[in-house]
Amino acid sequence: MALGTLCGGWRIVRTVGSRITHLTPMQGFCAETGGALALFGATWFGIPVSTTHTVTGSVVGVGAAWRVSAVRWGVTRGILVAWIVTLPRLRRRRRGMLLVDQPVRAAGARRRGL
Q: Is 77 left (phi over 0), alpha (psi -120 to 50) or beta?
């Protein structure tokens, strides 16, 4: 996770912080509070959610509450598409890792006599 944050974290912070919409300090506070409340609620009900998704949604919500045209919907659409495209990619990557990992584990178990 640290490597991913180091390599791409700044792009995410820049996109959410300034490319979706311009936020005043008060709007930023409201977006962070809304995101935190959404995370607490999801945790309370045992629903797994992503911090990035909740904060991004709250930034879009605060920007749209101020003025719908203040949100750059093209940037928001690009984020949504990236989230949707990521799931099948991760499934394929996981499947490939399992194909490599299972024979290695089986060989190790045979060597240990299990």
A: alpha
Condensed to tens digits (0 to 9), the pLDDT of residues 4-18 reads 667 777 777 777 778
Nearest-angstrom CA–CA distance, 35 and 59: 8
Please check whether residue 54 is in contact with residue 61, taking contact to mean a CB–CB distance below 8 angstroms.
no
pLDDT tens-digit series, residues 38-80: 999 999 999 988 888 899 999 999 999 999 999 999 999 998 8
Q: Are residues 55 and 77 in the same domain?
A: no
Do 79 and 55 lie in a common domain? no
Number of folded domains that form the chain: 2
Residue-number span of the structural domain to which 12 is assigned:
1-71
Question: Which one-letter amino acid corresponds to residue 63?
Answer: G
Distance between the two ends of the chain, CA-based, in angstroms?
33
